[in-house]
Every structure is written in C-alpha cells, then in structure tokens.
Write a structure and sequence with these properties.
single chain, alpha+beta, six-stranded antiparallel beta sheet, four-stranded antiparallel beta sheet, 12 helices, globular, cell shape
Amino acid sequence: MKIVVLAGGLSPERNVSLSTGVMVTEALRRLGHRAGLVDLYFGTQAAGEAFFDAPVPVEFKRIGRQAPDLEAVRRSRAGESRSLFGPGVLELCRAADLVFVALHGSCGEDGRVQATLELLGVPYTGAGYLGSAIAMDKDLTKRVVAGLVSTPAWRTVSYGPEDIERLVTETSLPVVVKPVASGSSIGVSIAHTAQELRAALTEGAALGGRTVLEQYVAGREIQVGILEDQALPSIEIIPKEGFYDYANKYQPGAAREVCPAEIPAELEEAVRRAALRVYEALGLSVYARADFIVDGAGEPWFLEINTLPGMTPTSLLPQEAAAVGVDYDALCQKIVAASLAARAQGR
C-alpha cells in the first residue's frame, strides 16, 4: 500500500508526533508498504512517487525535555498562509491508499484533520472525527462518562489574568490544573498551595484560559491500551520524581514502567472494563489509551482517554501490545487493517 504518515503539525506535541511518525514510517517500510513521512504544517516539495522513497529524518526520534516554541515554528515557515496544511500535503493524501495519522494534540487529534480527510474520501487511521473531537475535550469527555465510571470531581473555568486571584481563593486544594484540550501532560500541574495554584493558572491563561480544575486523587498511575476494540494488559507508571509530566514521559529512564501492572486480578479486570466503557461511550475505534489513578482503597478513577496514543521509543501502547505478543511492526499493521475496516463500516 501507499501510505502517507502525517506528523508534526502546529501543536505543543509537535516533537512527540514527529518521533511517532519516524518510528511508524520505518515500521511500515519494513512491512513492505511504500510509506512516506510528511510534516502537516511544513508540507513537502517531494513530488509523486519520489515522496514514498524519501529518506526519513531519524534525528526526530529523540524528544527534548521542553515542548516546542510554536511562535518560532510559525515564523520558520515561508509565506503568509494561515492554513495548518503545508504545501502539497492534501495532494499527497489524495494520492495515498491510506493516511496514517501520527499527529498528537490539538492539531490533528481533535477531529479536524480526520474530518478533512473524510470529506476528501481518504481513509485514515484511528478514531473517527466525532469521537476524536469529544475525547480531546477533557470536560466534555467527563460529562459523557461520569455516569459510567468513577472520575474525580471537576469544574471547567474560562478565565483571564484578572480572574486568577478569585479562582485561587475559591478553589479547594490540592487540585489538578489542566488545559481542556491538550495532551502529553503539557500545561498540567498539581497545586498543593495557593502559590502553586496561582502559578498554574497563570500558565493556563497563556495557553488559552479554558482549564479543568480537577479533584486531586493520590494513588498509582495505571493506563490501559485498547486495540481492535479489546483492552490490552494495564501498565503502571512510576516516575522517578514528580508526576508523569512531559519530561518524564519522553526522556528514557525518567520513569519505570511495569507491564502488566502488578495489581490484583480483580483490579486489572475493573480498569479494563472501565477503559472499554469510555471507549464505547465516545464511539471510538481502532485504538486508544485510557489513563487512571488507583487510590489507596483500590478504586480506579478515570482521568482521560487518548485517541492517538504515542508510538515513540518510550511510549506505552507498544509496551502493552508487546505483553500479548504483538511487536511494534505487527502493531502498526493491526492499526492499518483495523482502520481500513472501521472506515469501510463508517466508524
């Protein structure tokens, strides 16, 4: 098959996406597909068949400790177009048998790219546009699933700098502060003091000001991948310091990952059931990864679900798949096959 791997884009998770894109492109080529990598935002000058044989920039595999400066990314693109699609991207997608969506975050994981491809009649990987859009919004996701699974109490606020002191005064601590539509823990903080909350809200205002204030639940970080509508073995994340933030996610050795998680069988079954309930309620398909905190009493609390889990050298879904005998290349092939089936079924 001719497959365009769509990565990069204009999102705080841009560098994570490029790492995923390189890994996936290499795997698809090993599987015998003609796969080429293109940056959604910058596009390509490679034309026609030459694109599918172009070298893959392996330096993109490594992810720095800091998210990219998006203003600098914008300035580095030639021309004044405001389109999120760079030159030649849509033409390449139209010429492909499939687009492997290796995008992460608000530019690519929120349903807009999926809807564009849908309108063009181009098959793509992962969940459909509507489920992607709902799952990207943490507030809306929690509203949909609150009656199906346990999720920490929350409220969503839209605010500016002038509202920060009021929010600090009226918010119970400790609290988790997270942007409504972001991933890779970018902009996420755990505030134990008024000073920490003030700093988190100040950062949130710079990210747009629409923020979820979520009850802090102490416990073990357990995540469950879903592949082909089936839950994979859970994985426990144990950061060496702090919580599972951007740096701890993508720096090798920053966190210990145990898969399958060392939890009782009944808890394993409970988190898998909860992950599938969320996945089904949002109308997702192909693959996803749900995040939980398990408290001291053994109660799993659903936090959020990721519709395009990372496929980087440190990502979790490939580890969970490996636990049931599915290596990285086989995982990519399963995603391709399941996505084609889902699109054919209108999912």
